[in-house]
Amino acid sequence: MGIHPGELAVFRFIGILVLTIPLVIRNGSNPFGPPELRHFLLLRGIAGATSLFLRFSAFRYLPIADASVIIFSVPVFVSLFACIFLKEPCGVFQTITVLLTMLGLSLTTKLPIIFGSDGDININSQYVNASIPSLLVNMTVASDSRQELLANQKLHHIYGVLSALTSTIFASSVFIFIRKAKGAHHSVIMFNFGWVAIVETVIITALMDGFSSPKTGTEWLLIILLGIFSFCGQILLTRSLQLEQAGPVAVVRAATDIALAFVWQLWLFHDVPDMWSIAGALLVTTCIIITSVRKWVMTQPEHSRIKSKCYFMIQ
């Protein structure tokens, strides 16, 4: 699909809002929520819309698996934010987990400080020094074009990485805002998310001149499915965060999303991730699982054998 990421985000939020309205009417409560929670509902909408816009941008410029590993490292950052804003326990072990996650992200994003700045495409200087003048001119032009293409690829990669990382920060804050607003009905949270997100993404997309009409029936079908699946995913996420702590919910979601991202990339696009992407994904997934285990250990009774044996995890 050649549709701008901002326009895709708008369609997604329209689907969420339209399908949420009947739930709000059925619930019968104020659609804008209790007065004391409205600022959290507003912040949840802004953070969610910004996160999704940046996520779609990341998927446009990075392979699905690479973007997903960055975006769905959310649980580690959710736990960090929960320590700061929700006063959930935090310690040395969790700090180490965050650092390992950052290392995994560095492998996946292939930071120049680790992999160098030359890239994978090298121009062979022997062809530039060829003895046939006509070939020399042609090869020089081809070399310039290739260098320009490589520069554009690097620029797109940097833009994709920055979009994914920033999306992760905003997505992590969403979990905190939903936990803060858990006193509101889940349909009210969804309703406010929908209208705030539509306003924000319409403005951003219009400023970027990103609106264009879908051209085929397949594109319209995919857009409709995007709205339906977005509604289902958001209502399940909102409900789960009302019933469970932010950390475990983020862990289960992220581990599933990363695994599926690699499956979709291989199956649908036949794009095989390189060893660095796989290594980074394994490291990030391991940290996500460790974060989940830590949360589980913390819920055990004070004098349980499990908690005593794994005491180092809650330090």
From TrEMBL:
Compartments, record wording: Membrane
InterPro entries: EamA_dom, EmrE-like
Annotated transmembrane regions: 6-25, 37-58, 64-86, 98-115, 158-178, 190-208, 220-238, 250-269, 275-297
GO CC terms, sorted: membrane
Full protein name: EamA domain-containing protein
SUPFAM superfamilies, A to Z: Multidrug resistance efflux transporter EmrE (SSF103481)
Keywords: Membrane, Transmembrane, Transmembrane helix
Species of provenance: Medioppia subpectinata
Residue ranges of every copy of the EamA domain listed in the record: 3-108, 159-292
Domain of life (superkingdom): Eukaryota
Membrane topology: Multi-pass membrane protein
UniProt key word Hydrolase: no
Major localisation: membrane
